[in-house]
Amino acid sequence: MNPSDAGCIKQILNGETSAFSVLVNRYKNQSYGLALKVVKNEEDAEEVVQDALMKAYKALRKFRQDAQFSTWLYRIVYNTALTKAGKRRIQKVPVEDYQEELEFDGKDAVNTLVNEDRKHYLHEAILTLNEEDRTIVHLYYKEEKDAKEIAEIMNMSHVNIRVRLSRIRKKLYDILRLKLKEEHLL
Amino acid sequence: MKNKIEDFDRLIKEVVEENDEPKLGEQFTVNMMSQVYEYKYKTRYKWLYVLFPIVLLTLAATIYFAVGQNWFFPMLQRFEELITMDRTMLFLGSAVVYLIYSRILIGILVLKRQFTY
After folding, report:
1. What is the pLDDT of residues A64-82, one digit of tens each?
2. From the list A102, A123, A173, which residue is nearest B19 (CB)?
3. CA–CA gap between residue A98 and residue A167 (Å, rounded)
4. ipTM more than 0.95?
5. For residues B38 and B32, what is the distance between their CA atoms, to the nearest angstrom?
6. What residues in A contact B40, CB-CB < 8 Å?
7. pLDDT per position as a tens digit, A23-77
8. Per-residue burial over A64-103, b = 16 or more CB atoms within 10 Å of its CB, e = otherwise
9. Among all residues of chain B, which has the CA nearest to that of A121?
10. pTM, two decimal places
11. Collapsed DSSP state (helix, strand, coil) of residue A99
């Protein structure tokens, strides 16, 4: 059985460096996925993950175990990827624009299409999002991080993340509706 | 309405999860661990990096100042080949030997760990 993250960290700090390979194997692909969202290049993303994991190893003693290791690591990955991509930090959205619910109309755009089509169109819609929004989608839906953890990774307030998530949903839904109109299904 | 948002969220999650992204293979872990061990040993054996040039410099200085001293001539004959070398070459040679030594040292330590991690 694989040890927990905390167990691995304890082993590494006690001198068993090989335990770091467990963490590398556990998080390399997730980190790679996250880096790809920012740098959009497989070679650069691999380099980012390598740099980030080295930074994490060097700073392991500073890691306070009140947060999850994955959240801490993703934050390093995200910042390293931003530096690599030469990007400034994300601009925060005004909170007053926050809109909790989607505006579903009479005909439900999501349920009109058969499953495979829905997924196809939705995947296309996700690809049209900018990298920050795709990073949020990745962290929220794939890594199952909550708004607070995403905020910690992306250095934003959790309210801002919730606003962005709401906007992303709305945007994806609008793209789906547009697609349906084009296909004369709505 | 809440159910519809949840349904939509579920759909997004399915799409995101089904979307195959490139993955990093086992070789990545091997390379990563090599880097980690290299860093570890470089940090742990820092003194070796310091000690070796000190020994080399002491040796070079001894040879440099001893040339011409009476007691040095018998030794000079023994190390004739070394002493006839140009002194600059001697220092450059020492630097090259040091670089090779440090790479071999770290290489051996990393390789040793690489097969055991």
Report:
1. 877 889 999 999 999 999 9
2. A123
3. 8
4. no
5. 10
6. 17
7. 999 999 999 999 998 888 889 999 999 999 999 999 988 888 778 899 999 999 9
8. eeeeebbbbbbbbbbbbbbebbeeeebeebeeeeeeeebe
9. B15
10. 0.69
11. coil
